[in-house]
Design goal:
The complex is a heterodimer of chains A (about 475) and B (about 400). In chain A, the strands form 3 sheets. In chain A, strands 5, 6, 8, 9, 11, 12, 14, 15, 17, 18, 20, 22 and 24 form a 13-stranded mixed beta sheet that branches. A 10-stranded mixed beta sheet of chain A has the order 4-3-7-10-13-16-19-21-23-25. In chain A, strands 1-2 form a two-stranded antiparallel sheet. Chain A folds into 2 domains: about 300 residues, no CATH class; about 55 residues, no CATH class. In chain A, a hairpin with a 2-residue loop joins strand 3 and strand 4. Chain A has 13 helices and 25 strands. Chain B has about 400 residues and is an alpha/beta fold. Chain B has one domain. Chain B is about 25% helix and about 40% strand. Chain B has a 9-stranded mixed beta sheet with strand order 3-6-8-10-12-14-16-18-20, covered by helices on one side. In chain B, helix 2 runs antiparallel to helix 3, helix 3 packs antiparallel against helix 7 and helix 8 crosses helix 9. The longest helix of chain B is centred in the C-terminal third of the chain and has 17 residues. The chains are: A alpha/beta (about 475), B alpha/beta (about 400). At the A-B interface, strand 24 and strand 25 of A face strand 19 and strand 20 of B. Chain B: Belongs to the iron-sulfur cluster assembly SufBD family. Chain B: This is SufBD protein. Chain B: It comes from Halovivax asiaticus JCM 14624.
Chain lengths: ~475, ~400
């Protein structure tokens, strides 16, 4: 890391995520899930009838669907007991829809985000920022220049009230219906907070917009919903950051992300996830891409006890393009099961998946991916590359790709390698004066570089810091 | 389970088969155990993804396919020199080999591993036993099975003692006299026990007629410094579900699994290559190539599983599918499961069509397009042919590929 970024290292990264703040909530739902909880939530949010109906329908689906247990080698979810989860906590903030001034927030909440460095990042390099604390978005702001162009960036609950026509059309309908999987159904029933991003035709949002999600209460579940609609020729980069302090009971994060990429539009969705090691991170993220549109997923999965995340792209229009870049780092006790899904449903579509994983101290990483090329999707091509690095013999690294090819005029390639950190590489670096630890850190930094270079510099630095932290004290 | 075959096959049937072979009591008990547990067992695993069953074995109507008492086959068992090649039934009752058979039968594949292995165990007719004594080099063992009935169950046990070597070539095809357009079922279980420093090369060429549904499971266990090399060619059958597997149990053990398939019409091939690295310094190389024409469909699953104790592992896997028709479909899943970091492992899989540039190159030199395509298909198989050490096998497979191209 170069010296001009040193100021970013002055804060101890571990402390920045692991601290807990005391804060009195305004409304805490009871543990568990039933119709009454849903009605209470919906009423507290003053939602229209149609949203309540969607929630109740999702709840019914959730109750009917079995827990996924038959995937080969999947993470152990036996501890995930929905009856022990607090699905809804509304923090005590005077302004119900959140504020656009950090100073209006209670000190405890403001401190939390200060320590995470969010206001600083907003000033320096972002177009807009949303911050969610427990179940509700407490802060949301966007630079005037984008608002003037008709860009909408607001919390999802507010969007339900203010833009019902767009939300009604796109919210968990064609992209991620609640029937998709058990946790999507759960999400549909209890979702709260998240972001709504709308970029009108031809508008390019040059600086990224960011949302930060923070769980502060033990045993809670966070279910934020993100809906991004990019009209024809629009361009936007959305960044999501997540963290929580560590408690003894488990937390559950089950977010839902839906992205609509219009003709010739370009959406990049970047996530750096650093949930505490007691969090189950079970998300459903999906994009539908129209003609000549481009979707890019960049995901860094560092935290959580278990993650199951397979961002999915449906290439619906001719010439649509998808890029997945994922990195997973599993340390002690972590099971990071992540990957990508791409459906080529039109001719001339293209996808590239690049996955990197590192496992150490008994952690497990798994790449689980599906590429489907439908009959008629002529001249489509897909290239999948998975590389895994293992530190020690207690760790596990799995690769499970699935390819379904119904069309003959295609170019499909999958490649994967697994290896340990090369003794020769370490020797080379040591012979140039680096010690063993630094040599390993440098090799890891080089290994993940394809990911970090896709992120804004602050995030790249953060990711590198997190990885260094993971490696400290356990090398030798 | 939709197929109630276990309800229609009685203990009497199994006793009748066993009695006809004059089998020892333990073997009959093994068969009866397998039969009585049928209803508890699952079909062999097949890949399921959302909205797609890669192969649907439950749809097979075993009730009408299985007709054990009328099994008819013609078998040639050839082995020269000190190698023993005989039927399992005979070996199990032979003073000299009875103990060897009893020790190893079911040692590599649990007879009750799944519904279809249990069915094979309960109903196999005569079976084959190959025994290679210590230090013996058996060049040409051939097993030829001609299937002449609605169903046929085969069981092959190979035991290679220390420092022995054997080259075994097994072929299956359908006899001329079988009723045309009658659905048939052929099932085979092959166990290979390769003891210390032994070398077993096992070729398998399946060219059953296209009314036949085929299930086969071949698995070898390689002890210290032993090598098991498999070659499997799948040309015939209506549907094939086949697994070729090696457990590398001993230090320094090696295995190569080479596969080739060529599907046309409505053929369905579900081929699996799996290797388990269980000890240090083991090596595996999995190479499969397949061509699909018409409405043929292929499913490939490859697994490289490296255990915690498998230090210094090398493991490679390649799979390539060539699609000649727009109506064909290819599914592939090459998997890596790595529990030891002292591993060098890679896999790759590709699906594509005949390369347009190569085709243009050839047509521009005056070769008609049909002929050029045929030549490119033959060329596509060359990397697989090159891995085949048995000349006879390579010639046979090449001839079958050519014959299919000429159709």
């Amino acid at each position: 890391m170069s010296s001009d970024q040193d100021h970013l290292q002055t804060t101890n990264t571990e402390d920045r995520f692991a601290f807990k703040n005391e804060h009195e909530a305004a409304l805490v739902s009871e543990q568990g899930l039933n119709e009454e909880t849903i009605r209470l939530m919906s009423e507290d949010k003053d939602e229209p009838e149609w949203m309540l109906e969607r929630r109740l329908r999702a709840l019914k689906l959730f109750q009917e669907m079995p827990m996924p247990t038959d995937w080969p080698g999947q993470p152990d979810l036996s501890e995930v007991d929905i009856d022990k989860i607090v699905p809804y906590i509304r923090p005590d903030v005077e302004i119900r829809e959140g504020t656009d001034d950090w100073e209006n927030l209670p000190d405890e909440i403001k401190d939390t985000f200060d320590q995470l460095g969010i206001p600083d990042a907003e000033r320096e390099s972002l177009s807009g920022v949303g911050a969610q604390y427990e179940s509700e978005v407490v802060y949301q702001n966007m630079r005037d220049q984008w608002e003037d162009k008709g860009v909408i960036f607001m919390n999802m609950d507010r969007a339900v009230q203010e833009h019902p026509e767009i939300v009604k059309e796109h919210f968990m309908t064609s992209c991620v219906p609640p029937s998709d999987n058990k946790f999507a159904a759960l999400h549909g029933a209890v979702w709260s907070g998240g972001s709504f991003v709308y970029v009108p035709e031809g508008v390019e949002v040059e600086m990224p917009v960011q949302a930060y999600f923070r769980m502060n209460t033990e045993g809670m579940g966070q279910f934020e919903h993100t809906l991004i609609v990019a009209e024809e020729g629009a361009e936007v980069h959305y960044i999501e950051g997540c963290s929580a302090p560590k408690y003894s009971a488990f937390n559950l994060h089950s977010g839902g992300v839906e992205v609509f990429v219009g003709e010739d539009a370009h959406v990049q969705y970047s996530t750096v996830q650093n949930w505490s090691r007691n969090t189950y991170n079970l998300n459903t993220k999906r994009a539908i891409v129209e003609e000549n549109g481009t979707m890019e997923w960049v995901s860094g999965s560092m935290g959580s006890k278990a993650t199951m995340l397979y961002p999915c792209t449906i290439l619906k229009g001719r010439g649509a393009t998808d890029t997945h870049i994922t990195i997973a780092f599993a340390g002690e006790g972590q099971d990071i099961d992540t990957g990508a899904k791409v459906y080529h449903n039109a001719p001339d579509t293209k996808s590239t998946i690049e996955s990197k994983s590192i496992s150490k101290d008994g952690g497990r990483t798994n790449y689980r991916g599906l590429v489907h090329i439908a009959d008629g999707a002529e001249n489509s091509s897909t290239a999948v590359e998975c590389d895994a690095l293992m530190f020690d013999n207690e760790s596990t690294s799995d690769t499970m790709p699935y390819m379904e090819i119904e069309e003959s005029k295609v170019d499909v390639a999958h490649e994967a390698t697994v290896g340990k950190i090369g003794d020769e590489d370490i020797f080379y670096l040591q012979s140039r004066g680096l010690d063993d630890d630094d040599a390993k850190k440098m090799i890891v930094a080089g290994f993940i570089e394809p990911i970090t270079e896709e992120l804004p510099i602050e995030y790249a630095v953060e990711l590198n810091r997190l990885i260094e932290l993971e490696m400290e004290g356990s090398l030798g | 389970m939709s197929t109630q075959v276990h309800a229609t096959i009685s203990e009497e049937t199994v006793r009748e088969i066993s009695d006809a072979n004059d089998e020892p009591e333990w073997l009959m008990e093994t068969r009866l155990d397998a039969l009585s547990n049928l209803s508890e067992l699952d079909m062999p695993p097949v890949i399921r993804t959302p909205g797609r069953d890669w192969t649907n074995l439950d749809a097979l109507d075993f009730d009408s396919l299985v007709d054990p008492l009328n099994a008819a086959e013609e078998k040639d068992l050839v082995g020269e020199g000190d190698v023993v090649v005989t039927t399992l039934a005979e070996a199990a009752g032979d003073d000299e080999y009875a103990d060897v058979v009893r020790e190893h039968f079911g040692s590599v594949i649990d007879p009750q591993e799944n519904y279809l292995t249990a069915l094979s165990t309960a109903l196999f007719t005569s079976g084959t036993f190959v025994y290679v004594p210590e230090g013996v080099n058996a060049e040409d063992v051939t097993i030829r099975t001609e299937m002449n009935s609605r169903s046929l169950f085969n069981y092959t046990l190979v035991v290679a003692e220390d420092s022995s070597s054997a080259t075994i070539l097994e072929r299956q095809y359908t006899g001329e006299d079988t009723a045309a357009s009658e659905d048939r079922y052929y099932s085979a279980v092959v166990e290979v026990v390769a003891n210390e420093n032994s070398h077993v090369q096992y070729g398998w060429l399946q060219n059953l007629d296209e009314d036949t549904y085929n299930y086969s499971l071949k698995r070898g266990s390689a002890d210290t410094y032993a090598t098991i090399n498999w070659i499997e060619g799948n040309i015939g059958s209506r549907l094939t579900k086949s697994a070729v597997e090696t457990t590398l149990d001993g230090s320094g053990a090696e295995s190569q699994i080479v596969g080739a398939f060529f599907g046309h019409d409505e053929q369905h091939f579900d081929v699996n290559a799996r290797v388990w690295h269980k000890n240090e310094h083991t090596t595996a190389d999995l190479v499969t190539r397949g061509v699909l024409d018409d409405e043929a469909r292929s499913v490939y699953e490859g697994v490289q599983d490296v255990g915690t104790e498998a230090w210094d592992t090398s493991s490679y896997q390649r799979e390539n599918t060539l699609m000649l028709s727009d109506d064909s479909e290819a599914d592939a899943s090459p998997k890596l499961i790595i529990n030891n970091h002292d591993t060098e492992a890679s896999h790759s899989a590709t699906v594509g069509q005949v390369d347009a540039e190569e085709l243009l190159y050839m047509t521009s030199r005056g070769i008609p397009e049909d002929q050029a395509t045929d030549m490119l298909v033959e060329g596509f198989f060359v990397p697989v042919f090159e891995e085949i050490e048995i000349d006879e096998f390579r010639d046979d497979l090449e001839a079958l590929v050519e014959a299919r191209l000429d159709e």
